[in-house]
Amino acid sequence: MIRKIVLIGFMGAGKTTTGRKLAQALDCEFFDADERIEAAEGRRIADIFADDGEGAFRDMETAFLKEFLQNGPDAFVLSAGGGMPLREENRVLLRRLGTVVYLKADKETIVKRLAEDKSRPLLQGGDLERRIAALMAEREQIYLSTAHKVMETDGRTPEELQENLSHMD
Ligand code: S3P
Predict the structure, then answer these.
(1) What is the spatial distance between Cα 35 and Cα 126, in angstroms, rounded to a whole number?
(2) Could you give the angle at which helices 54-71 and 88-97 cross, rounded to 10 degrees?
């Protein structure tokens, strides 16, 4: 059974919800990169972006991955931030960490899920659907090239996804 799983994918794809359930099913520790960065910084991501800019946040993501690769446990599920695979360096780190699974969701699913979201700085202001479409177009190839496996999530519950993922070899 795979004991080191990294979930990547767009904001709202279900990385955190599914990851938590998967870790429970596999009886291993769950890590959410955004939560860890917020805890280490003592600030919300929206505030990190507002105070220091996106570049500073991306540096924090790289630092988190390096540290996790050094000191992370032998078995875990890690939910990556949606933008983590954007840097080449991070892609290498993510793949070194474990089996990288891309949780893939349609634009319509993401738009529905994030319609009321205020926590994600990249989606604030302007036309949400357009913003999501543009970012997804930029990122699709990056997610695909980072992942060892791709899992379609549309129309599937986190429980169903967890069930599939926990039997992955
Ligand atoms: C981001 C995704 C967010 C968070 C930040 C930037 C992105 O994480 O790291 O708002 O660039 O896609 P989630 O994918 O967990 O929402």
Answers:
(1) 26
(2) 30
To the nearest 10 degrees (0 to 180), the angle between helices 107-114 and 128-146 is 120
Digit-coded pLDDT (tens) for 107-163: 999 999 999 999 999 999 889 999 999 999 999 999 999 999 999 999 999 889 989
pTM of the model: 0.96
pLDDT at 1: 66
Residue having the nearest C-alpha atom to atom 11 of ligand 1: 83
* Nearest one of 51, 55, 58, 45 to 16, comparing CA atoms: 45
**Going by CA atoms, what residue is nearest to atom 10 of ligand 1?**
120
Pairing of strands 4-8, 29-32: unpaired
Q: How far is the CA of 11 from the centre of ligand 1 (A)?
A: 5
The 3-class secondary structure across 107-138, one letter per residue, is: HHHHHHHHCCCCCCHHHCCCCHHHHHHHHHHH
